[in-house]
Write a structure and sequence with these properties.
CATH superfamily of the largest domain: P-loop containing nucleotide triphosphate hydrolases
Structural class: alpha/beta
Order of helices and strands: EEEEEHEEHEHHHEHEHEEHH
Number of domains: 2
Number of helices: 9
Radius of gyration: 18 Å
Strand order of the largest sheet: 8-9-10-5-11-12
Strand content: 25-35%
Length: 260
């Protein structure tokens, strides 16, 4: 089984690294996810598209074990997330990189300290040389080696996004979860972040879920697109397959992005 890649090579699929089956989640009377099914394979980028409030961020919070589902299962590396104890869940999270929408950098730390923090907290007995090497490698990967001593307040929005991704990469995750990676960025910076997502996939062989309402981001980064509408995946496939649909809800989403 294979997935067509809009922005490059074909990704061969084996057993899924993330498997979501019959997922439901409500908050009071608000039904957010209503029976979601999706598999993510090794080395694959999948963009989850939907309007604000459609449940995209809820989905990745469940995958990361930050929320529990009301019904259904989420398996990551063949482990059911909501059944793991605290120790096993923390161990699994070390294999998952979470790129937050707001970058989530510590304002009181410079770039070097922001990158060192997760490494020293989660990896024992590292020498100063090992730490410096790891920091330099991820800064090189995101193209910001010259920003190593700057404070987050001195960085642009795009640079903060890059440093946030670098901080995630320093633990060498196998899965990346991107939450609205291009939100609030100008078109040129958005293009740079999209290119970085592709570079991370190629260099680190990550499997990624990219939560976005930005169709350009989805088109250039995703092997497959999953269209989340009214709590379910209305269509899953390549970008072109999904947006060939005559469903008025999908057409309206496309028109909102590319016409208005």
């Amino acid at each position: 089984m294979e997935a067509a890649k809009e922005h490059g090579t074909i990704v061969k699929q084996e057993n899924p690294v993330i498997s979501i089956k019959g997922l439901y989640k409500s908050f009071g009377d608000l039904d957010v996810l209503k029976g979601v099914d999706l598999d993510i394979y090794k080395g694959e980028n999948v963009a989850v598209l939907g309007r604000s409030g459609s449940g995209k961020s809820v989905l990745i919070k469940i995958i990361a074990g930050l929320l529990k589902p009301d019904k259904g299962t989420v398996n990551v590396f063949d482990k059911q997330i909501d059944l793991l104890n605290g120790k096993d869940l923390n161990a699994l999270r070390l294999r998952i990189g979470f790129s937050f929408q707001n970058s989530a950098l510590y304002d009181s730390m410079n770039v070097r300290q922001n990158l060192e923090f997760p490494l020293t907290m989660n990896t024992k007995n590292l020498s100063r040389k090992d730490i410096d090497k790891a920091v330099e490698e991820v800064l090189d990967a995101v193209g910001l080696k010259d920003k190593i001593n700057q404070m987050p307040s001195d960085l642009s929005g795009g640079q903060k996004k890059r440093i946030g991704i670098a901080r995630t990469l320093i633990l060498k995750p196998e899965i990346m979860l991107y939450d609205e990676p291009t939100s609030g960025l100008d078109p040129i910076t958005s293009t740079e972040i999209n290119e970085l997502i592709n570079e991370v996939q190629q260099q680190y062989n990550t499997s990624s879920i990219i939560i976005t309402h930005d169709l350009t981001c989805a088109k250039v980064t995703a092997n497959r697109v999953a269209m989340l509408i009214e709590g379910t995946f209305l269509s899953v496939g390549s970008f072109n397959e999904v947006f060939k649909s005559e469903d008025e809800r999908i057409k309206a989403f496309f028109n909102y992005n590319f016409i208005q």
